Amino acid sequence: MSQMPQLSACPSCEEPLESGDLFCGACGFDLSVVPARPDASPNGSPAAAAAQWPEAPEVDSSDVPVPTHRPHDVPGTDSGGTELPEPAAAAAPAEPGPAGQEPDEYPLPAPGGTVAAEPAASPVAAATDPAAPAEGADPRTSAPEPTPAAGTKLCVACRSGRVDPDGYCENCGHAQPRERDHMEQELDAVAAVSDRGLRHHRNEDAFAISAAALPDGSPAVVAIVCDGVSSATRPDEASLAASRAANECLQGALPRGTHPQQAMHDAIIAAADAVNALAAEPASAREHSPHQNAPACTLVGSIVAGGLLVVGWVGDSRAYWVPDDRSGPTVRLTEDDSWAAQMVAAGLMNEAEAYADERAHAITGWLGADAYELEPHTASFKPDRAGVVVVCTDGLWNYAEAVEEMAGAVPADAAQRPLHSAQVLVGHALDGGGHDNVTVAVVPFPFVPQGAGSA
User: Fold this and answer.
1) Regions of the chain where pLDDT drops below 70
2) What is the pTM of this model?
3) C-alpha 411: how far from its chain's center?
4) Which of 8, 141, 208, 397 is most exposed by smallest CB count within 10 Å?
5) DSSP string, 277-342
6) What CA–CA distance (Å, rounded) separates 249 from 260?
7) First to last CA, the chain
């Protein structure tokens, strides 16, 4: 029978004890369950003779780490009381294992103090062995994930998960940015940028830029910008269909020699037909969504060809003329189809009062099956100096409404760097609040000496 340990305080509540106490007088703890203090170390040697570990030197002020001790550097015995053997690596260098496997530096001692004949399994081999359990594998030695196939879209958040067709990562579930959230395109003589903005959940704008050759071989540069009507059904589809249809129509008409102004008129008609076609849904679809209205959008476009500048529009997207040297006036080339524009045209309000009204941006003209009678607007100009045409949605001009503000926002080198200028203008709108989608196309207009005045 072991002796009762001599305790000065209760191990449960630390209440002072007296000699011979069997239970704590404060908490009632049974003192007989406290194990007796061992007289010897687990390997049979007296506790006082246990191995004295060398003191590890502290890190000095130079942050030099302490020296590393290996097992054979410290005297000791194994669990059987036998002296630890010298490692095989100390006598002779070990041969590398198969397939470049590193040898085990310290073979495991077998029971009885002899070195085991078979080396321990390498963690690298365990990680690469198909039969080895994956659980508990060292991530530093695990085989890397296979490289995704070319064209596989990876998650922008975790950078490893594949993106499902529904737009979510199959690994972390993160929603991926839509392709149209931010778009940029640059050709030799035109560039455009479109951005979702900071408040909308999707980008309902679209653009198309292109170049064509006139019959005489001279170039014609085209920019089309469309703004989906948010109150309509599928406005993003409407803007995309309109921009593509208008651009395709111009690419067919201009090389045939059609006058650019007539070509622009026909392109707007083609865009309207494309948007109208979106409303031709099956009857079953309308039964499930009886309150849907027809898709709709606005359109503004420009053509620069042979010293001529042509613009066309329906709705409240705009085109501005900005001269390079700023010695001439910056001019707004379009008139909005909007409530505010009607009030100003009728003389009922000045421009500042009209655009301050909450009804200012209610449009009176658009492309769509439920639009009023379609009236494409076109105009042609012959600027007398070099400059750029800024074609944009109201997501930009809301933050640079006056022509002076637009002139100040357009970089001075816009004609030489149209893409950079479009990026700057989109940034101007985002810095202003980004309440709407914003799309900008910048079209340089080279100076043609023989043209002057308005056509």
Assistant:
1) 1-6, 33-148, 150-151, 281-291, 448, 450-455
2) 0.63
3) 27
4) 8
5) HHT---HHHHHHSTT----EEEEEEEEEETTEEEEEEESS-EEEEEESSSSSPPEE-----BHHHH
6) 11
7) 120
